[in-house]
Specification:
The chain has helices at 17-20, 59-62, 77-81, 106-110, 139-146, 184-187, 240-244, 287-290; strands spanning 91-96, 102-105, 116-123, 128-138, 154-159, 179-183, 193-198, 201-202, 212-214, 227-233, 268-271, 278-279. It is an alpha+beta fold and 303 residues long. It has one domain: Alpha-Beta Complex (Sulfite Oxidase, Chain A, domain 2), CATH 3.90.420.10. The strands form two sheets. Strands 3, 4, 7, 8, 9, 11 and 12 form a seven-stranded mixed β-sheet that branches. It has a five-stranded mixed β-sheet with strand order 2-1-10-5-6. The structure holds ligand MTE.
Length: 303
Amino acid sequence: MLIRRPDDLPASDITPESAYLNRRTFMGAAGALALGALAAPAAAFPALGRRQEDTLTSEEDATSYNNYYEFGTAKEDPKALSGDFKARPWTVAIEGMVKTPRRVDLDALLARLPLEDRVYRHRCVEAWSMVIPWQGVALKDVIARCDPLAGAKFVQFTTLLDPRQFPGQRRAVLPWPYKEGLRMDEAMHPLTLLVTGMYGKTLPNQNGAPLRLVVPWKYGFKGIKGIVSLRFTDRMPTTSWNDVAPEEYGFYANVNPDVDHPRWSQARERRIGEFRRRATLPFNGYAAQVASLYAGMDLRRNY
Ligand code: MTE
């Protein structure tokens, strides 16, 4: 075993949930959060008319209410049907505009990269949201190991294609395999993570084991699960939801309360575990960190 996976750590090393709540690096966007207040009971904050606080979503909710169409389209399907999924051994193809295209063992790809804890808001395009403590490595550190050529402008990610393991891939719900992509500067942003764990444990199959993407300022569908390939390219790559419904799902998919989905509003969201809907924040609350990536772009056209 070359990397320290969360489940290899002695219990004393695992950060308790209470410690996530105090971490200064919490979610990056300190401006949108009252950090010291996180552990206080929600009742202490009359939400109306005030900025709403973020509290961690329960591990049970985050691992049983999922989108992973390879296992089925119902929220409970991924947990119910992923028990036998084989997340090791796992290889990742490094393809396209790189110095040396190759296939690497996942553990070798991640070896000796610092495993980071990041608590991020997670906002699905369906207008529900969660707050999740992820563990992973910064995508920029992995990209540095891929040696992309100077002309590479985008990176495309692909999920495993294996209808024997993925019952959902036996039906034409989406053009399989699922694909996603980022512009290179988005991929290199320090908030962008390749995730291998959550809640201090190895990533559950239903959440995308062994490797998924997390881009906290974008809608959750950008967070592709079960990644088997990183392809570097100079053209904006195909992405699954954009491919099937370009009017509904853009390539950028930045969380934007001002641009509604054609069939529903994106102004508010249902935080799983909470009673009232809350206001959705531009860039999911990470505007201070990422808005400059889109300077000069029309965010209504580039949705
Ligand atoms: N990745 C794959 N391969 N297949 C999927 O169906 N669903 C996406 C994304 N990644 C999906 C995927 C969507 S729509 C969301 S909101 C998130 O995964 C959900 O992640 P979660 O189940 O961990 O909350």
